[in-house]
Amino acid sequence: METGSETIAQLAARLGREFAAGAQQADETDSFVAANYAALKDAGLVEAAVPAELGGRGAEIGELCDMIRLIAHGCSSTALAFSMHTHQVAIPAWRWRHQKLAVVEPLLRRVATERIVLLSSGGSDWIGGSGKAEKVEGGYRITARKVFTSGAAAGDILMTGAVLEGETPPKVLHFGVPMKAPEVSVADTWRTLGMRGTGSNDVVVDGLFIPDAGVALARNAGEWHPLFQIIATIAFPLIYAAYLGVAESARDIAVEMAGRKPANPHAISLAGRMDTSLRAAQLAHRHMIATVEENAPSAETVNETMIGRALVAEHAIKAVELALELAGGAGFYRAAGLERRFRDVQGARFHPLQQGPQAAYAGSMALGLPVDKVF
């Protein structure tokens, strides 16, 4: 696909419109949006977050969020799955720019030149870690089942970790898993309420050898590490850009459908409440981006990011609920696209930090209490 002089936002908007045609079929058949990933590669968006000096497009966090959000207007699943690759590139790109970390350069160059797709196993690899790492000669033997691995079928490297046995306190080792290794398989488990086209299947790792040199980090399990402060601060504006895009597209559909009928006070009120909720989500998301742009990840930026994440989730979900009500009975039909967006936006509830831990983190920060083990 020729990119020409299109900006990243223009590319994303155009692709989003193209992806819309197949979004319903992917939803109805639980099919991974593989063709859309091919289009994203052809458009050069796989390397959007790679610094320009390393062969990428050098996009900053705000541009990347717009990319994900605009893709979501057409296909929620593509946007959410692609946000997982995008944040796995944006994090080492940030470390290259701001920490001058040379070790990330080979990976970033591979993304730019080979257009490899990075996977994240999301919540299953959160602060507590998951999976088992057994120390063997020259490295570690890994056994794990990584759930919620969005885009698993299209991935080249799974950025993941495992808990090292026999250590006190328990340690989590971080490394990349080559998806083509014979010890790695994808289990077809993704049958869900929404975001059905993300292909977020389980990845099973059965006895994979990771050499000592392949371990990028060892950290204490169950405690916030500075790297996870970077991850949380940068990743979640990208992930929640997908849900914001879902809410924006639901709003537009509802306004178009409501415009076919004479206005009445009830519809006018619903439209006003819907736009108010959507604006709240948009403003909260802008705050998340502004937090990244401080370029100083810390316990405080995690708090601000997670407050933003909670507000985007709450108000995006509310905006879509109101959109469905504004559209009326016609919106209940699957062909309208609203009920799919209603289901897709529910996924905003389930990423870390979920409602309870987020409130505990924010409350602990407010009262000057430790947050190093709040997750």
TrEMBL record:
GO terms for molecular function: oxidoreductase activity. Pfam families: Acyl-CoA_dh_2, Acyl-CoA_dh_N. It is an enzyme of class 1 (oxidoreductase). The keyword Cytoplasm does not apply. InterPro entries: Acyl-CoA_DH_C, Acyl-CoA_Oxase/DH_mid-dom_sf, AcylCo_DH-like_C, AcylCoA_DH/ox_N, AcylCoA_DH/ox_N_sf, AcylCoA_DH/oxidase_NM_dom_sf. It comes from the Bacteria. Residues 16-94 form the Acyl-CoA dehydrogenase/oxidase N-terminal domain. Residues 240-351 form the Acyl-CoA dehydrogenase C-terminal domain. Its EC number is 1.-.-.-. This is Acyl-CoA dehydrogenase family protein. It comes from Mesorhizobium marinum.
